[in-house]
Amino acid sequence: MRPLLPVVFAAMLLLAGCVAPLQTDGGSAAAPADGETPPNISVSGTGTASADADLALVSVTISALDSDAEAARSAVAEDSQAMFDALTDAGVDTEEAVTTTFFRISPEYDYSRDGGRELLGYRAAHGYQIEVTPEQAGDAIDAAVGAVSGDGENGIVVDGVQYTLTDETRADVRAEALENAVDAARADADTVAGAAGVSIAGVRTISTGADYNPYPQPRYAFEESADGASTVLQPGPVEVSATVTITYDIE
């Protein structure tokens, strides 16, 4: 039998050429090979900022019911013109501030009859949005409602008031909310990294999520004047919320 020593010795030499020596750097993560993603952590942060509302959106609907569709449309057109005139007298630039939100003419039925329905007539409805300053909102409502008489079937309905921000103000508030979101994300990243015994090395990726901009609900009140009670609205501040997701490299 041939001795095994030369064969074993040759195998040891082969393995020695394939295994690299183990290297350490005192506990920090080893540098990744080309094409590999370095160690990282991802966190999300939410920030908020607020400002006083500087834009009010008043939504109204003028409607009329008549046995003839054209007559219903004409009644709505006349009431709309009366509202426009009243808003102009109240200092509202109707060409810039008033826009149509919807318009429709549709049959209206009474379904209370057993086994059938009865045509009541045709309902014409024209919805408007009036953009004014928060201080003008109450006066705009009073002007619009006062200009359109109602008899139960015809008239005006105030669908609601939304207080919000102009584009310029919203951009400033959103920028502040984003800064707060980034600060919150970094604070969480530092906490997680410290608990894991590593440290933040830099930002790898960052993305923003959808903003959340709730409308504050106005508080209604009535203020007595020589001509009767007037509508007074008291909005709260508008808050903008922003979210970011950041991936940090760690070492």
From TrEMBL:
<dbReference type="Pfam" id="PF04402">
    <property type="entry name" value="SIMPL"/>
</dbReference>
<feature type="region of interest" description="Disordered">
    <location>
        <begin position="26"/>
        <end position="46"/>
    </location>
</feature>
<protein>
    <recommendedName>
        <fullName>Outer membrane protein</fullName>
    </recommendedName>
</protein>
<dbReference type="InterPro" id="IPR007497">
    <property type="entry name" value="SIMPL/DUF541"/>
</dbReference>
<dbReference type="InterPro" id="IPR052022">
    <property type="entry name" value="26kDa_periplasmic_antigen"/>
</dbReference>
<dbReference type="GO" id="GO:0006974">
    <property type="term" value="P:DNA damage response"/>
</dbReference>
